[in-house]
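User: C-alpha cells for this one?
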Amino acid sequence: MITEDLLRISSNQGVSSGDSSHFSRLINDSTDHCSSNVSDDAISKCTVTPGGRRYYVPIAIDETFIPFVNKLFDSMEKGMNFYQEYGMLSGFNTRRSTEKTDDDDNIVSKYVVCSRAGFNEKKSIVPSKNSSQVRRRRTVSNRCGCHAKIILRIVSGKTYRISTFIEEHNHELIAKDGRQFMRVNRQMSTISRKFVFDAANVNIGVSKSHSFMKEQVGGYANVGATVRDFRNFSRDLKAYVGERDAQMIINKFKAKHDSCESFYYAYDVDSEDHLTKLFCADTVARRNYELYGDVVSFDATFNTNMYNMVFCPFTGVDKHDKCVTFGFALLSKEDIPHFQWAFDHFRKAMGRNPVVIVTDQCPAMKQAIPISFAATDDFPATRHRLCMWHIMEKFPMKLGNYLCKETDFMEKMKKYIWSSTLEPAEFEKGWNSVVKEFKLEGNRWLWEMFAIRTSWIPTFFRDKPMFGLMRTTSRSESENSFFSQFHRQSDSLCEFYLRFGSAMDKQRYEYGRLNQEDLSAIPSTVSKLFIEADAAQLYTRAIFYKIQQEILASCYDMRIQDIGPLVDGVKCYIMKDVLIKDKLFEVKVSRNYAQCSCKKFVLCGILCRHAFCALNHFEVVKIPRLLVLNR
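Assistant:
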C-alpha cells in the first residue's frame, strides 16, 4: 500500500509511473543501509542490534591513530589531542567532559566524549498573552546521547593511560566532503586572524575577506574556517576592547610618545571620565607642516566612529598639488571650547601659526580661531578665510532660483567674486553695480555677505602670501572622501586609529611614488623656449603643468603695450591679456627677479603669464631662483 501511494504521488509530481523501480530501490536502501557489505569508500561500518538500534564504527583508519585501552600519554593534554585527531579522521567532533580530582586538585581522570553525547535540556516556555507576537530565536541540537568516548586516568606524575574506550557511535559519521565544516577543522589559524585584522584596517568586511582568502588558498575547503567563524572572531575582538576602548588608544599614544618624543598627542575627559577631546600629530605630519603648513583647511563635518565624535583633519597642499594631513582632532561637541582646545594643541604641536586657515561659516570656529591663533612676538596672527563654495551655494536659497538660474545675475556677480586680479575698489564698484541693476539693495543677506567681504573675496587676499592656494574647503571635502574609504560610523576608537593609520600609509606612499616619478623622468616640453625646459627640470610634474600653461599663454595671449627704459637693471613692461578685457598689467623684470601687478606669485607661489612674457622678451632663459619656493 505504501509503495502504491508513493507511486501515485510521484506521478502527480512529474515522475512517470514506469519508474517504479526507483522507489523500490529507495525502500531497499533504507532497509539494507546497515548491510554487512562495506564499499571501498565507506567511512564506517554499521551494525544493528536485535532491538533495532544502529551503531557505527569508523573504518579505514591507520592503526597508529586508533585508541586502545592502556595506551600511555606523557600528559593529559596529549591524550585529549590524540582522541581529537582520531575523531577528525573518523568523522566526529569531540569535547571535554567530566573530570575528577584528588585532595590536591590534581586531575585523576578525564572524560573526552563525542560532541553528540548527552541531551540538551528543553526549556519550558510559560505562555503569555503576547506570546504569539514574541519572536524567538530558532535553535537546533546535535545531541543524540552518543556513548563514544575515552576515559583517561592518571598513572603516575603526569602520565595518563586510556582506561576505557567505547568505539561505537549511535549516529552516522561525517562524510569526507563534509569534514571541512567540522569544528576541529574550523580553528582559525594565526594567519587567518591576522588576515581578518589587516583586512579590517582597510575597511574590508569579514564576508569579503573570507572570499578573498578563499581565492588565495585555492578553495573554501582550504580556508579552515567559515564566514561565521570570521564574524565571531571580529565580534570577540570588539568584545575584548569593550569599555577599554578609549583607554587603549590613550595607552597606544603614550607608548608611541615614549618611543618617539616628536609624536604629539593630547586628550581631555569630562566629569564622568569620558573621553571628549583627542588630538594627534605624528613625526611625519609635523615635518610636512614645516614644508607645507602655510595654508590649512579645517573641516568638522565627518563622523567616523560609534561615539559620534566629529573627525576634524587639518589639511594642506603638498608640492604635488595633493592633500597632505597635518594631524587630526576628535571632538564630542562642535562648540567654541572644543574648537579652541583643538586649535591650541595644533599650534603647540606645530610650533607656529598657519598663515591662513580656511573653514566654513561655523560661528564657533569664527570665535575660536582669533583666540587660538593670535599674534605673538614670533609669529603674526592667522588670517581666517571663509569657504567661497559654501557661500556661493547659498545664493539660490537666499535670492531665489529664478534670479540665479533664469537670469544673468550669477554670471555678472561671479565676474567680480572669483576674480583675483581686481583691486578692492574695483570689486566694490562692480558688486554695487550688479546689486543696483537687479534692485537688490534691500536684501539683508547680500548686505551681510558684502560686510564680511574681506573674509572670502579673493581680491582682499592679493597681498597675502600663498592665500591663493585654497579658496574653498574642497581640500577637506576631498580628504573626507578619501577617509570614507577606510572608516565606518560603527568603528570603535581603536578601529578608527588603525584605519586612520592605513589611510596615512596610502597617502604617504603616493607622496613617495610621485617623488620617485619626478626624479626618474622629465615631462615633455611643447615649445622651444629654454625657460620651459628649465621649468621641466626644476618643478614637480604637477606644478610644471601649471607653469607650462602660463608659459604657453605668455606666447599667445599677451600683447606688450609699452616698454620702459632700463633703470638699475630693471625694465618695466605694460601689457594686455587678451583673455581679460579692460585690464593692463605692469611687470618689472631683471635678470634675477620679476614682479607683476596681478600678484599671482604672491598668491600661489608660481609665476604668471605676464611675467613669463616679460622675462622672455628680456632674454632670460632660466627662471630666477629667487622665484622658486622651497615648498
